Amino acid sequence: MTTPAAPQDDSGVLLSVRNLSLRFGGVLAVNDVSFDVRSGEVFTLIGPNGAGKTTLFNLISRIYRPSTGSIAYAGPDGAMLQLTRQQPHMVAGLGIARTFQNIELFEHASVLHNLLIGRHRCRETGLWADLLFTRRVRAAEMRAREKVEQVIDFLDLQHCRDQLVAGLPYGVRKVVELARALCTEPRLLLLDEPSSGLNVEETDDMAFWIQDIQQALGITVLMVEHDMALVSRVSDRVLAMNHGQVLAMGSPREVQSHPGVIEAYLGRADTASDTSGPLRRPPASPGARTSA
Ligand SMILES: Nc1ncnc2c1ncn2[C@@H]1O[C@H](COP(=O)(O)OP(=O)(O)OP(=O)(O)O)[C@@H](O)[C@H]1O
């Protein structure tokens, strides 16, 4: 018996989200959201606190299962597959890597070891081969080391490669987390608030790395970000959310000047005469949960 071939993607779309919703009890955190992320672009989710950005992000990285809707992803062979049908641990194997708003690294391991652990998902050998340390295992280990060294060079981490993560400044740890994600050789990189906790200079460096990852490595980036200066600088397209729904989608300039977006951030569209400047992150509304 032959199985029908999976539909092939020929539109340059890497990720296609359709009518996605997730309800937490009485809260509709994500409400009928649809959008496409094109191969090679930087696509950014913005919105005030509690808008549903992190929930949407966690749906795409399969931490949550949607109440309704679908997420299709162009797999390594080009066939569109349903992410919602994949086990969460299989997502990394499909070429999707993510960073977290609150850095998730092994604090008492060196930078090098953290990156080698990050590389683990690319393991091509089985348990017995590993135990016997066969020639294939040795070759795979060499490839892992080469990839890790390339990423260390790419992100200028030579100066701290043998240091414990626990002793590193916060800004460097953020770059190490980015490095760990890159070691898995992703096709889609999910960045959860890459600038959170960074000072102006470090945010500037982060913008540079994101542009370099897109342009030099050709990796598609989907990020959640509050810093509108960073968003404007690196994003090809922006999707603004509020109350779980899509408010606007387009270029950074189009979205920043959209009346609904200004109103969501500032309260009333007609109070915001200057739409050229960055939208500021508003104070958290009472009862709003901070992002996961
Ligand atoms: N695990 C959860 N259980 C119950 N409610 C949740 C949960 N996670 C999120 N929510 C609710 O869903 C809504 C969307 O939250 P979410 O964290 O996705 O917003 P956000 O846009 O990421 O906000 P922020 O910018 O503050 O991180 C909020 O009303 C929030 O309180």
UniProtKB/TrEMBL annotation:
GO terms for molecular function: ATP binding; ATP hydrolysis activity. Keywords: ATP-binding, Cell membrane, Membrane, Nucleotide-binding, Transport. Residues 270-292 are annotated as: Disordered. PANTHER family: ABC TRANSPORTER ATP-BINDING PROTEIN, CONSERVED COMPONENT OF ABC TRANSPORTER FOR NATURAL AMINO ACIDS-RELATED. The keyword ATP-binding applies. This is ABC transporter related. The keyword Transport applies. PROSITE patterns: ABC_TRANSPORTER_2. Residues 15-268 form the ABC transporter domain. InterPro entries: AAA+_ATPase (IPR003593), ABC_AA/LPS_Transport (IPR051120), ABC_transporter-like_ATP-bd (IPR003439), BCA_ABC_TP_C (IPR032823), P-loop_NTPase (IPR027417). It comes from Verminephrobacter eiseniae (strain EF01-2). It holds the Pfam family BCA_ABC_TP_C. It comes from the Bacteria. SMART domains: AAA.
